[in-house]
From TrEMBL, chain A:
Protein name (record): DNA-directed RNA polymerase II subunit RPB3
Location relative to the cell: Nucleus
PROSITE patterns: RNA_POL_D_30KD
Signal sequence coordinates: none
SMART domains reported in the protein's UniProt record: RPOLD (SM00662)
SUPFAM superfamilies reported in the protein's UniProt record: Insert subdomain of RNA polymerase alpha subunit, RBP11-like subunits of RNA polymerase
From TrEMBL, chain B:
Name recorded for this polypeptide: DNA-directed RNA polymerase
Domain DNA-directed RNA polymerase subunit 2 hybrid-binding, chain residue ranges per copy: 678-1040
Enzyme class: transferase
Transmembrane segments: none
Subcellular location, principal: nucleus
Length: 342, 1169
């Protein structure tokens, strides 16, 4: 397990239209798990977020149909071309931040008619982009069932699909499950594979055992060893290609790290401007919140809360006796840059 | 031996198809219909069966009433009046409705209109004047509530398809009534077994009189119309016996000898022999009998006629018989109505009485033991239909009595009476209250029994319950519920609540609630039936004589010979050896179905024993008995056994334990002893038994699917789970009872792990993503009835009309209401929003009704309800749909009594996950298991996991596995085949760090139920709010946004902690802290008052008693004008300025005022001065 400083290595074992199986090696467990987490929760996709119901005479309640619509996977390959609704300058929604789908189903014949995801039509604003079309992965190309209607029942809705991430709601998840495994032989003894009589009989061998050397019983246990190979098995819901999901997951992760670097840099730059650049190290956080500029002294001290005017002196002084809350600027119990928490 | 396991299916397609096209012939779930059989058939028995049904038997028993048209009987005309027959119609629209083409009324309409499902009760009243020709008239006795699916219900023979057309469930069960829109159910009660004399030792018997002892023989005799009369023979200290009965709630005691002499023309010798038999050497017995016979001599009544006349004379007034009856006739009437009423002939009664006396003496001599009234052996079930018939009988009796009463009133008033004139009779009928149906409706809607006689029952209320439709489990189990009687609920002893081995197979040992009704409220085992018809016992006598039973034997008596009784009638005697052979042969014959014996004949052979139960051969074929099927080994056929005989039968539980010459029967299945619900608990044989009890309770509180015809119901509150699933792990009976029509929970991936700390103490963590995908998503339907005519008196003109008026009203109402003033479907309403607009003529304004609930709801339905009089619309119901997605604090449970509260919705990425990326929907703490020992839940988890992996349904019927064939192995193999660990463990990874967890985690699929206890219905918060106007303390109650009391014990705890500040905060500051003024000088809290402010000055607080009133202007000489102050009544004062403000609890002021009212002054010392 020698690192040759070349960085993480990805070895793809298998790719299918909706899943990918790969090995991530030469990296830390923390990084591997971060990739897993950002794939699951941070990759933006498109999902129906607002449903305007014009007519619903089905047996299902409005909010229940809306919920079902929300969970329908929508094509999100080009979701990057959309803005987040919250970042968009429009008031409600617009074509920069949303995709509009419509559904109109009415049963005119005897018997039961099923409304499928394929009946959702994308309004043609984004026609040239791969975005918003319902995913129809089944053999009949019908997609998910939305509801069933009988004669004279009707469902007419306008759906506004928005960009979002799964951290907010599960409907924006690009993946169904992310398989994640390391150390198939349990050489690191992270877990103990409890058994009653015979571990070999009771525990199935991992598929990944073939990729690693079986443990040598004579070898001494290396307690410094760290996991090195991480076996991923990513299964998507079809909204984004599996390789894209991983790439975007890594991108999101990178952006987050970049965000941290950016704000650190910003602080450094600002401190340099003010001429106390040596303050970066140990007191790093002190500078972010502290420093005389942002919160201290001027903003709160004295005027708004402090000082003898509003809370100090008069108001509290009489009721609780002069001392309890003090007369000075400590009237705000915010962080005081000079004394710390008082 | 490993038995091959049956495989269950999911039958999804079959269920769907059946749902889309309900069967056109019959229900797919005959077991369901069987479960409520006793209810429906006991109701049917009222109008069908021998003698034209129970009601017609009842009117025969009531007999004829006689009344004279003048107090002078010799010259008076005599009117005999009686009810000849009773008829009950099917529910139909009334005659006032001229427009309806289909005149039938269906139950769904009654539910939605909040009316009652009832049919006309018709009485054919006959009378004859001076014993002349019979006249008759059919009288309408009001509308009687009809049981659904009974023979008077339109739904009785409908196929599922037709039922659906009638807006019912496709497998509607019936068995209940619809009263004022509520579904009401007469619950089954346990009563003493009929027609069998029971030996009883009861200390309270001593309270009857000074010589009374605790010994008695009690028999509950049932007439053919199912009304009953209890007779007791008491043993007195001196060896004498008295006969006790109660009539119209009064008790009467008669010497037994008098009854016997009245029953038959007999002599002392005959009585002596009939009791002693051949045991004349038994001096205990002969001494007492001598005394019994001697002491009666004092009455000087020798012949039967004399005795009857004596009895008749004493009871003439009590029985209120016709004046023209002779004393002897009255005496006979007493015997007919009171003494051993299950027997027709006096001879039979006489012999039964002899038997009872001998049994009593044997009990006193301690040669036999007392019978246990708490054991199922001596119990039967009082069925709803029979109780209904009993009440009806009494009401009809009262009706006849009220007619005679009316005649007497007419005599008193001097109204002209002419019985032979039709006009007078019609007037007579119209003057009495004929509405019997209304009285029965009152009974059903309140459960209160209004009765002069008490109907031989021990309680007056609690006979009916609302058939809750919380979910189908709850609904169904209510029909199988048997109550011991509310009298027993107050008993301090727990003996009545004990689970006795006698109830094996009849009452479920698991399914009883914990808490106060424990053991009193039982449920019938799922194979237990209750007889609703008399078995045909006409051929039993023949069979007995074939076996050599002598019908009558001069010297046969006592426990040394075997007395053969059929339904409480002594039919013969034989030796004990012969008795056993007779019993065995009878059983063989009846199972063989030869000799005309009914299969459900109960053959209770009690063998001779040392101080055991009094021996004999007791045959029963009556109604209301509990019965159950077991396999009869000699013929390998089904036998129906009852609780009386079962005690003396050897029934093997499994075929493997049969021993030859010991067992005569074997159970068809060990699960037969469990109730329907207890049977549905998966692998309940692996659980600690109280947990199975808890599951039976929680299954009934689950938010599930109450029904599918929800659109045609108007229940006040209805819970519904939107995402119900069929369980992967289910018992065979689950499918047979069609539970998939009403799913009750969701299959969840459950990991048993202590992961975040949020799963402490029975809390459970729900995966946030699972919640977002709809796990446990449910809703509540609430119905509000709006009746504009509610405050309008009958006959008043309608002044309020639905809809908007032409006056001006706020425009924003239009956002929620449609042009007709009614809310639009799908509108979201919040507290204070308008739900309906109406125009009020009296003020000429449009008004609204508002939504009263802090929880927002959606309008689901608006139903306009017409009344019966074709008037303008005045009533409507609005159904709200209230969303109940999972909140933190909502209650969930598995099917093993493992309930827990959702403590967090944990983000998916942070959840632990398996190598395949599976994350649990639910995390529960491993500490939930060691003390509770719900191994069944582990097994279910294992089975569910294997089932999910292989796509198969798993059978969880209890007692399918054994020590050699464990479920752990069975499902372990399946798991291994699917590539999983044999024991259901999986290595898991921390979601937060990605590190493999130190231990492998037990993860599987468990069916989870969402319980109806939700925080949204329970949370109680208050900072400030309404206060009691008298004490100024916060009010109580969640509804009124009151506070939670910090009571004495809480106070003690706070004191113990020394948390004085908190104590002051709770008890004073957050309670009734008040600032008030006090006079420093006189120390009064009540006297200071606010002065009237003068111009340019502030008002001040002055003490009225310390001030000097200015009576005349002369006092004002040296006084500065500014010193003078005025009260509100223009009185002027000087002084009293020495006041200050203090903070006190307001109740102190209240106390002071109360004391002042009693003339006690409170004085407070104020310091510093």
């Amino acid at each position: 397990m020698q690192s040759d400083n070349s960085g993480p290595i990805v070895k793809i074992r298998d790719v299918q239209p909706d899943c990918v199986n790969f090995v991530l090696s030469e990296c830390d467990l923390a990084l591997a798990n971060s990739v897993r987490r950002s794939i699951m929760a941070e990759v933006p996709t498109l999902a129906i977020d607002i449903v305007e119901i014009e007519e619903n005479s089905t047996v299902l309640a409005d909010e229940f149909i809306s919920h079902r619509l929300g969970l329908i996977p929508l094509q999100s390959d080009d979701v990057d071309s959309l803005l987040y609704n919250r970042d968009c300058s429009c008031g409600d929604y617009c074509e920069l931040c949303s995709v509009v789908l419509t559904l109109h189903a009415k049963c005119t014949s005897e018997g039961i008619q099923t409304v499928y995801a394929r009946d959702l039509l994308v309004e043609p604003n984004h026609s040239n982009l791969k975005i918003g079309q319902p995913i129809l992965n089944d053999d009949a190309n019908k997609g998910s069932v939305i509801c069933k209607i009988k004669k004279h029942q009707e469902l007419k809705v306008k759906c506004i699909a928005k960009k979002g991430i799964s951290k907010e709601h599960a409907k924006w998840s690009p993946v169904a499950a992310v398989g994640f495994e390391y150390d198939p032989w349990n050489k690191l003894k992270h877990t103990d594979y409890w058994y009653e009589e015979d571990a070999d009989k009771e525990w199935p061998k991992s598929d990944y055992c073939a990729y690693e050397e079986p443990p040598n019983p004579d070898e001494k246990f290396d307690y410094t060893a760290k996991p090195n190979n991480f076996y991923f098995d990513v299964e998507t819901v079809g909204t984004i290609n599996p390789n894209e999901v991983i790439l975007r997951g890594i991108r999101e992760l990178r952006n987050k790290v970049a965000g941290v670097i950016y704000s650190l840099d910003e602080i450094v730059a600002r401190n340099a401007n003010e001429g106390n650049a040596e303050n970066i190290g140990g007191a790093g956080f002190g500078t972010v919140y502290g420093g005389a500029t942002q919160y201290g002294g001027t903003a709160y001290g004295g005027t708004a809360y402090g000082g003898g005017t509003q809370y100090g002196g008069t108001a509290y002084g009489t009721q609780y006796g002069g001392t309890a809350y003090g007369n000075n600027s400590a009237g705000n119990d915010d962080y005081n840059p000079t004394t710390g928490w008082d | 031996m490993v038995a091959p396991k049956e495989r269950l299916g999911f039958n999804t397609l079959k269920t769907t198809k059946r749902f889309q096209n309900p069967p056109k012939d019959e229900t797919a779930f005959p077991l369901l219909a069987e479960a409520i059989y006793p209810h429906i058939h006991s109701f049917n028995a009222l109008t069908e069966g021998p003698g034209g049904g129970l009601l017609n038997l009842a009117v025969k028993d009531i007999g004829k009433k006689t009344v004279y048209d003048s107090t002078e009987h010799r010259s008076a005309n005599k009117l005999k009046i009686w009810i000849d027959s009773v008829q009950l119609m099917k529910p139909a629209v009334g005659s006032f409705d001229k427009t309806s083409l289909d005149r039938k009324t269906y139950p769904a309409e009654c539910r939605e209109r909040m009316s009652s499902y009832r049919g006309k009760l018709m009485l054919k009243v006959c009378w004859s004047v001076n014993d002349g020709p019979e006249m008759s008239e059919v009288r309408d006795a009001g509308y009687l509530p009809i049981m659904l699916k009974s023979n008077r219900c339109h739904l009785q023979t409908m196929s599922p398809e037709e039922l659906v057309k009638c807006r019912e469930e496709s497998d509607e069960l019936g068995g209940y009534f619809v009263v004022n829109g509520l579904e009401k159910l007469v619950r089954m009660l346990i009563v003493q077994r009929r027609n069998h004399p029971m030996a009883i030792v009861r200390p309270s018997f001593e309270n009857r009189g000074h010589a009374y002892t605790k010994y008695g023989i009690q028999i509950r005799c049932v007439r053919p119309d199912q009304t009953s009369q209890t007779n007791v023979v008491h043993y007195l200290k001196d060896g004498n016996l008295t006969f006790r009965f109660s009539w119209r709630k009064n008790e009467y005691l008669v010497p037994v000898m008098m009854i016997m002499k009245a029953l038959a023309e007999t002599n002392d010798r005959e009585i002596f022999d009939g009791i002693v038999g051949s045991d004349s050497s038994d001096s205990f017995l002969t001494d007492r009998l001598e005394l019994l016979l001697r002491s009666y001599k004092s009455y000087g009544l020798h012949s039967q006629q004399e005795t009857l006349a004596y009895l008749g004379d004493k009871f003439r007034v009590v029985f209120g018989v016709a004046d023209d009856m002779s004393d002897v006739e009255v005496g006979k009437e007493v015997l007919r109505r009171i003494v051993l009423v299950h027997l027709d002939s006096n001879e039979d009664k006489f012999r039964m009485l002899l038997f009872m006396i001998r049994k009593l003496y044997t009990l006193v001599a301690n040669d036999c033991c007392a019978d246990n009234p708490d054991s199922s052996q001596h119990q039967e079930i009082l069925l709803g239909g029979f109780l209904y018939g009993m009440i009806l009988k009494e009401k009809m009796d009262e009706y006849l009595a009220s007619i005679t009463q009316q005649v007497n009133t007419d005599i008193d008033r001097g109204t002209g009476i002419n019985f032979s004139e039709r006009k007078y009779m019609t007037r007579l009928f119209s003057k009495v209250n004929e509405n019997i149906g209304q009285k029965l409706q009152y009974f059903l809607s309140t459960g209160n029994l209004v009765s002069q006689s008490g109907l031989d029952l021990q309680q007056v209320s609690g006979y009916t319950v609302v058939a809750d439709k919380i979910n189908f489990y709850r609904f169904l189990s209510q029909f199988r519920m048997v109550h011991r009687g509310s009298f027993f609920a107050q008993l301090k002893t727990t003996t009545v609540r004990k689970l006795l081995p006698e109830s094996w197979g009849f009452l479920c040992p698991v399914h009883t609630p914990d808490g106060s009704p424990c053991g009193l409220l039982n449920h019938l085992s799922h194979k237990c039936k209750v007889a609703t018809e008399d078995s045909d016992v006409s051929k039993v006598g023949e069979a007995l004589s074939l076996l050599g039973i002598v019908p009558k034997h001069g010297f046969a008596a006592g426990p040394n010979v075997c007395c053969v009784q059929l339904d409480g009638k002594v039919v013969g005697w034989c030796t004990h050896e012969q008795g056993r052979i007779v019993a065995d042969t009878l059983r063989y014959w009846k199972v063989e179905r030869t000799h005309g014996l009914p299969l459900d004949l109960e053959i209770g052979y009690v063998p001779p024993s040392t101080k055991g139960q009094y021996p004999g051969l007791y045959l029963f074929g009556g109604r209301a008995r509990m019965m159950r099927p077991v396999k009869y080994l000699p013929l390998a056929k089904e036998d129906i056994v009852g609780p009386f005989e079962q005690v003396y039968l050897n029934v093997a539980v499994r075929p493997s334990e049969i021993e030859s010459n010991i067992h005569s029967h074997v159970e068809f299945s060990p699960t037969n002893i469990l109730s329907i619900l207890a049977n549905l608990t998966p692998f309940s044989d692996f659980n600690q038994s109280p947990r199975n009890m808890y599951q039976c309770q929680m299954g009934k509180q689950t938010m599930g699917t109450p029904g599918v015809a929800l659109a045609h119901r108007s229940d006040n509150k209805l819970y519904r789970l939107q995402t119900g699933q069929t369980p992967i792990v289910k018992a065979k009976l689950y499918d047979q009872y069609g539970m998939d029509n009403f799913p009750n929970g969701t299959n969840a991936v459950v990991a048993v792990i202590s992961y975040t700390g949020y799963d402490m103490d029975d809390a459970m963590i729900i995966n946030k993503s699972a919640d977002e995908r709809g796990f446990g998503y449910g809703m509540v339907y609430k119905v509000e009835k709006i009746d504009l005519g509610m405050n309008r008196r009958r006959g008043d003109p309608i002044t309020q009309h639905f809809g908007f008026g032409s006056d001006e009203w706020p425009e924003e109402w239009k956002g929620k209401l449609d042009a007709d003033g009614l809310p639009m479907i799908g509108t979201k309403v919040e507290e204070g929003d308008p739900i309906v607009a109406y125009f009020d003529d009296t003020v000429g304004k449009t008004k609204i009704k508002t939504y009263h609930s802090s929880e927002p709801g959606y309008i689901e339905e608006v139903k306009l309800l017409g009344d019966n009089n074709d008037e303008e619309l005045q009533m409507l119901t609005i159904k709200y749909r209230i969303i109940r997605d999972t909140q933190i604090g909502d209650k969930y449970s598995s099917r093993h009594g493992q309930k827990g509260v959702c403590s967090r919705k944990w983000p998916t990425v942070d959840m632990p996950f398996s190598e395949t990326g599976i994350q649990p929907d639910v995390i529960i703490n491993p500490h939930a298991f060691p003390s509770r020992m719900t191994i069944g839940m582990f097994v279910e988890s294992l089975a569910g996991k294997a089932g999910a992996l292989h796509g198969i349904a798993q059978d969880s019927t209890p007692w399918q596995f054994s020590e050699d064939d464990t479920p752990a192995d069975f499902f372990g193999e399946q798991l291994l085949k699917a590539g999983y660990n044999y024991h259901g463990n999986e290595p898991m990874y921390s979601g937060a760090t990605g590190e493999e967890l130190r231990a492998d985690i037990y993860m599987g699929v468990v069916y989870y139920q969402r319980l109806r206890h939700m925080v949204n219905d329970k949370f109680q918060v208050r900072s400030t709010g309404p206060v009691n106007s008298l004490t100024m303390q916060p009010v109580k109650g969640r509804k009124r946004s009151g506070g939670i009391r910090v009571g004495e014990m809480e106070r003690d705890a706070l004191i113990g902690h020394g948390s004085a500040f908190l104590l002051q905060d709770r008890l004073l500051n957050c309670s009734d802290y008040t600032q008030t003024s006090i006079c420093r000088s006189c120390g009064s809290l009540l006297n200071p008052q606010t002065s009237v402010p003068r111009i340019g000055q502030k008002s001040s607080i002055r003490c009225r008693s310390c001030a000097t009133k200015i009576e005349s202007e002369t006092l004002l000489k040296d006084v500065d004008e500014s010193e003078i102050w005025e009260d509100g009544q223009s009185n002027r004062f000087i002084g009293g300025a020495d006041t200050t403000t203090i903070g006190i609890p307001f109740v102190l002021k209240y106390l002071d005022s109360e004391l002042a009212a009693m003339g006690i002054r409170m004085r407070y010392n104020v310091s510093p001065k």
